[in-house]
């Protein structure tokens, strides 16, 4: 493919990095990755709750009446088409979009650790409000606070994981965020399956238990180290070296420490990261920070994960079977993410992106064809046909979970230099939350309008983004973050955008 294999980036000094994966790194990364539990739990919980009759009768009686009307004139695809119901799901991501820009400044000025603590606290308060909600306004306010937590967590956690992990294991450690996200989705689906059987207020238990991962993040975060990169960036150089030695398990950290110092000096000269990020030499990273999270959402994954019980209910599963199927999908999601953790630093990012894209494309086309041929607007699938759709959804989710799911967060978090890293991550989270909101708000309406064609729409988007990766994304496996700029300089396309003369002097010296 035109994107090419992994390149020699020219920095050289990473060969002298010493250290190992220590208990400090493992503990810190597990705690940080629990921020993914916040994100995943919400993704999984909202779809199950919005399919519960007790919840719908209380907050969305119009949807409840339409669901149980027995009117065969109206298409099954339109059972849940309600803007208010979609706003319940999507309002969180609109709040996260706003929060991430505040989180960018907090991450840069006060560190990754404090930002994660703020995320946990906001999510805890939001979960309490949701569990206690007596009206729609209270429910939405709680969702907004959850969004603040998600925005701060998604800003800080991927950076924290990338900076704490040794460069040769960075992919696996960073994917712990996505792993925790998938575990959160699975736990949420299991809880929904149980609480749906409660006589009343099962939805309160589902929404209130979101506070558990928030507490884990807050308490665990108190005992974590700040990243050496952040300490050095904020002027605590000796503390940064001390922490680096602890997390690497050796005092011989001079090579890695000096690279961090040089990167910090460049960062200190930058007064406005958001202005600096627009410079020509940062253009490839900005393109990736915008397009990768945009494409990630247009795989259609969150539409399915938000509404998987609703989706299965729509195509003929009963309520109990719909929630059970969501559990199966959630389990596949977790197991496939484990695959990504195992192979990402062996096979690289590009191979997983490309393989996952092809598999998702095929599955979505097949789902669309089955629904077009076998599932009319008012007819239902047979049991075997519905199970076939479930199997295809599982294959689709597996492909996403070892490719675009974790890599959609990993690659943007590892490609920016220190001086623009917080701004770059803010762009990534902002774009992700924007289109998560758009998909969350529009999916049920799109399902009603496009019917089976919605899967063809998402398949077309997967085709485009797989083509993009094949030709424009270089391999970043094993490249130290502070020397990532050499990857762009040696890429067939980006080398024409990022000439060597644009490199900071101190960074060029690393190669000499």
TrEMBL record:
Lipid bilayer topology: Multi-pass membrane protein
Pfam families: Sugar_tr
One GO CC term on file: membrane
Keywords annotated in UniProt: Membrane, Sugar transport, Symport, Transmembrane, Transmembrane helix, Transport
SUPFAM superfamilies per UniProt: MFS general substrate transporter
The keyword Disulfide bond is assigned to this record: no
Alphabetized GO MF terms: monosaccharide transmembrane transporter activity; symporter activity
Domain of life: Eukaryota
InterPro entries: MFS_dom, MFS_STP/MST-like_plant, MFS_sugar_transport-like, MFS_trans_sf, STP/PLT_plant, Sugar/inositol_transpt, Sugar_transporter_CS
Subcellular location: Membrane
Domain Major facilitator superfamily (MFS) profile: 28-477
Transmembrane portions of the chain: 21-41, 84-102, 114-133, 139-161, 173-191, 203-225, 286-310, 322-344, 356-377, 389-411, 423-446, 452-473
Family named by the database record: Belongs to the major facilitator superfamily. Sugar transporter (TC 2.A.1.1) family.
Stated name of the protein: Major facilitator superfamily (MFS) profile domain-containing protein
Taxonomic source organism: Ceratodon purpureus (Fire moss)
């Amino acid at each position: 493919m035109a994107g090419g294999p992994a390149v020699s980036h020219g920095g050289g000094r990473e060969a002298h990095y010493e250290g190992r994966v220590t208990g400090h790194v493992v503990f810190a990364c597990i705690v940080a990755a629990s921020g993914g539990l916040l994100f995943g739990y919400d993704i999984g919980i909202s779809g199950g709750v919005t399919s519960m009759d007790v919840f719908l009768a209380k907050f969305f009686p119009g949807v409840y009446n339409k669901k149980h009307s027995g009117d065969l004139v109206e298409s099954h695809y339109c059972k849940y088409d309600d803007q208010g119901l979609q706003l319940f799901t999507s309002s969180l991501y609109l709040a996260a979009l706003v929060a991430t820009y505040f989180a960018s400044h907090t991450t840069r000025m006060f560190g990754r650790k404090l930002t994660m603590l703020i995320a946990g606290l906001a999510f805890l308060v939001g979960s309490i409000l949701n569990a206690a909600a007596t009206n729609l306004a209270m429910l939405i306010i709680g969702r907004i606070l959850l969004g603040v937590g998600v925005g701060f967590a998604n800003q800080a956690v991927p950076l924290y994981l990338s900076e704490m992990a040794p460069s040769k294991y960075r992919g696996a450690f960073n994917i712990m965020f996505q792993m925790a996200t998938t575990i959160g989705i699975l736990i949420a689906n299991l809880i929904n399956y149980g609480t749906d059987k409660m006589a009343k207020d099962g939805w309160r238990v589902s929404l209130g238990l979101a506070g558990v991962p928030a507490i884990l993040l807050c308490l665990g975060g108190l005992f974590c180290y700040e990243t050496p990169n952040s300490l050095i960036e904020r002027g605590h150089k000796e503390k940064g070296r001390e922490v680096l030695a602890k997390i690497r398990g050796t005092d011989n950290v001079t090579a890695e420490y000096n690279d961090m110092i040089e990167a910090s000096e460049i960062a200190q000269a930058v007064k406005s990261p958001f202005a600096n990020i627009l410079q020509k030499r940062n253009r490839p990273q900005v393109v990736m920070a915008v397009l990768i999270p945009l494409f990630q959402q247009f795989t259609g994954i969150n539409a399915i994960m938000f509404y998987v019980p609703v989706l299965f209910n729509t195509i003929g599963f009963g309520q109990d079977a719909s929630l059970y199927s969501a559990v199966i999908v959630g389990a596949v999601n977790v197991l496939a993410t484990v695959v990504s953790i195992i192979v990402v630093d062996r096979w690289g990012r590009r191979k997983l992106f490309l393989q996952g894209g092809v598999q998702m494309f095929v599955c979505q086309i097949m789902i669309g064809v089955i629904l077009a041929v076998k599932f009319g607007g008012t007819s239902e699938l047979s049991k075997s046909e519905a199970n076939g759709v479930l199997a295809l959804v599982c294959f689709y989710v597996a492909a996403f979970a070892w490719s675009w799911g974790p890599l959609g967060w990993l690659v943007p978090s590892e490609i920016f230099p220190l001086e623009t890293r917080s701004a770059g991550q803010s762009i990534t989270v902002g774009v992700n939350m924007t289109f998560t909101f758009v998909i969350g708000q529009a999916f049920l309406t799109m399902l009603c309008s496009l019917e089976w064609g919605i899967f063809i729409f998402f398949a077309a988007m997967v085709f485009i983004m797989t083509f993009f990766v094949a030709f424009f994304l270089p391999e970043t496996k094993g490249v130290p973050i502070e020397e990532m700029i050499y990857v762009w300089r040696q890429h067939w396309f980006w080398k024409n955008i990022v000439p060597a003369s644009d490199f900071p002097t101190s960074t060029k010296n690393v190669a000499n």
